[in-house]
Amino acid sequence: MESLKVNALRRYLLEQDLMFLAGQPAVYHCHHFNLFLDQTIDDALGTEESFRLRMSAAREFSGHLLSAVCEHAGARTPPERLQLAAQLFKLMGHGSLDFDADLSGGTAHGSHLHYGFAWLEKYGKQVRRRHPADGFAAGFAAAALEIAFELSPGSLRGVEHECVALRAPQCRIQLDGESSPDPAGAVIGERESENVVGPPEDGLFEDSIHPIVLGLKEFTAGVQGDERGLVQAFGVFVTMHLCGYYNRISYDAVQTIETRAPQSVGVLEDLLRESGHVCVFNTFGGILLSPEWEGLVGAPTNEPAKILAWCIAIGRALGMGHWTIAEFEPERRLVVRTSSSYESVYYRTRHGLASRPVEYLFQGAALAMAQLVHRVDWESKPQLTADYYKRLFKGGVPWRAEQTKSIVRGDALSEVVVTKVSG
Amino acid sequence: MKAGACSDDFAERPGCAAGAEHADPMTVGALGLQLGHSCHRMLVWECARVQPAVTLALPDALRDVGYCEHCRTPLVREPVHPREQSVVIVPRTGGVQIRAPFLTPLAAREAAAREVAREHCALIRRARA
Amino acid sequence: MAESTLAQAVEGVPSLRGLFVTAMPDCLLFDAWMRPNEAWSGEDVASYFGDLVRANREGLKALRAWSAEMQVTIESTELLLILRELSSDFVVGFIFEHATPLGMVRLHVKRVLLLLHDILPRIQPDERPRAIRIAEFLTRYAPDTHTAMQRAALRSGIALELLRTPENLAPNQIELFERSVCDILGLESLNL
Fold first, then answer.
1. DSSP code of C145?
2. Is the Cβ pair C150, A44 closer than 8 Å?
3. Cα(C43)–Cα(A393) distance, rounded to whole angstroms?
């Protein structure tokens, strides 16, 4: 069985900048987004129900991924498949899993698990955590065992009993039979994505965006987890992650709150948008400030159009979709369009048409790009810390974003208009 | 940040207390080590620009002292030491960034970066000679 | 209180970098003096000092070692911080240069506290509504502060607009609000 290379498994949908890993929708996100999104689901559903949902989502989509990867690699026996799963988990930047299990269950020991490790690093000195953080790893581990022993999908569950975010020395996930497996959802792969995306367009500054996207995609082809399973690139900690995980936890949570506490839907959606804001500010900002960026593209400047074009290029290269700049008037108005987004692919395939725009990451990202372009002094090479973020936005955000077109509502493309708030 | 003659006399400006979220710039000799941006605190340190010709020689010099190249593109070189500190070099601009091993305890990161910077300084001096 | 009054109280203490008077039990800044080149935020500093003293008091009580004369001393590489309660109404925070000898610190603290005892008013503060204090505690200690109230709204099920005017919360809502803040901060309870 050959050693895995992420590069061999990665593909982009032509002209749409949607990324796939062994045919499964995938995207790069850093720990700021990952932690904030999981936290939002915790806040919406409570920590126990949230962990179950996150574990289930991870199990479902990791199962599809592992099935495809095992077939690709020719892994036939349980030990081969478990070894492959552990290797893939590492390469994707999620940490290390060590299995001590058989077809009835067992234990997975985790070290440097992305969520727990990153939570402790980011928040550990500020707040105490009382619930384990690694729902994704728990689901991935369950899926790995199901695939290894050819069990029915959803027949095992993972529960994390020890977690470094709770100051345990290591993470420990217990794998047991699942008493109430979820019904299978519609498959979402490249074909389903092609059915949803609209005709790709060019926008402003394409001459500078396009070559950067190509260069970045080539660069990230070599980006994968180290021996501990962490990905270090651009001075940030990145994961290659499953879009299905993000989408399912977000949309299932919204659906639950719509029924259980409809008065809270608005604030949940605001926080889901905020996770997009957090992603762009931290991940994109971190990339722009990195020496890798300086080498590949150039040092950041305070020219708004340049920073905006660069952000669009980063979004495409990370697999967020074929973002374009439809309009840009500095200090007044920004219109971002896309013919594709991993959110719309999932929603249209699983839920059909929506009554309102629900591409939260896209909405939050457009607003954050307006902020990055206008409010950060790039030439001073700031540190984009939580305190910097707080100082920058202490008086409120001077921009307003509205999604005016939406693939999930049946439009050919999605569009967010960002305008300056007067006063 | 200015390039200048390297020296083993490390003059320090106060303010970069270990564990500080926003450390003031700290000078290591004339190498001008400054805290850089990283998602993880105190891990990343920017060096003063050196001449591109010197950065061209740096990866080989680092290899001679045990670093191994993890190069994804010739535009950005990244020698990594077995102890896991790395140096990210942008040959075109002379940009050099030191990254302390990410498992280094917070209180020790500044010292770890300084250690690498000392080594770096000596290598640059040799490369110029 | 006139700024000059505090300035007069600290005259003759060259090693003092700042003085903060916190009104308890709400940990609000009452008054402050600092050297011209210091760039601290008085409100932030005062509120944390009040919490520090309160936490210290509760800790000592748990150890059955509480005393009205207790003092919190914190040394960092750059400063020496002394916190003292001055009656139940005020906590006074002294920020000295790090190198100040401790004997001098004690003398200065004693002298300035005596002056402040005469200067500061005797007040019977209205206890501010608990819900307001919960909201302030949350925004003071939550990470990602700009989203803290939204998170509390989501966790508690209480409308965000209502949480922004916490004095209007009903008793059962206050309980829900407090529980959500505990969950966000990872605390069993809030000692307010």
1. G
2. no
3. 18
- Check whether residue C110 and residue C144 sit in a common domain: no
**Length of chain C, in residues:** 192
| Helix pair A265-279, C148-156: axis angle to 10 deg | 140
Domain match, C87 and C174 both: no
B10 CA to chain A: closest CA distance, Å?
24
For residue A294, give every residue at least 6 positions away whose Cβ sits within 8 Å of its Cβ, in sequence order, or none.
B90, B93, B95
Instruction: Quote the CA–CA distance of C156 and B107 in Å, as a whole number.
Output: 38
CATH number of C14's domain? 3.30.450.30
Whether A349 and A192 have beta carbons less than 8 Å apart is answered as yes
Cβ contact (<8 Å) for B36 and A32? no
Q: Could you say which of A218, A222, A235 has the minimum Cβ distance to residue B38?
A: A235
Q: Is residue B6 part of a domain?
A: no
CA angle A119, A176, A253 (to 5 degrees): 50
C touches which chains (3+ CB pairs under 8 A)? A, B
Looking at C119, C138, C162, the residue that finishes a domain is C119
- Look at chain B and report how many structural domains it folds into: 1
Question: Which are the contacts of A59, defined by CB distance < 8 A and separation ≥ 6?
Answer: A139, A140, A142, A143, A146, A153, A154, A156, A157, A158
- Residue A147 in any domain: the answer is yes
Give pTM, 2 decimals. Answer: 0.84
Residue span of the structural domain in which B91 resides: 34-128
How many domains is chain A partitioned into structurally? 2
Q: Give the DSSP per-residue string, C64-106.
A: T---TT-EEEEE-SSEEEEEEEETTTEEEEEEEETTS-HHHHH
C-beta neighbour count of C24 within 10 angstroms: 18
CATH of residue B69's domain is: 3.30.310
Bridge-based pairing state of the strands B86-90 and B34-35: unpaired
Per-block mean pLDDT, blocks of 10 residues, chain A (423 long): 79 95 96 96 97 97 97 94 96 96 95 94 88 98 97 95 95 93 88 95 96 92 87 84 98 98 96 93 90 89 96 97 98 97 97 96 96 91 81 78 97 97 74
Domain range holding A127?
6-177
Quote the number of domains for chain C.
2
The range of the structural domain enclosing residue C90 comes to: 3-119
Domain match, C72 and C137 both: no
CA–CA gap between residue B77 and residue B88 (Å, rounded): 6
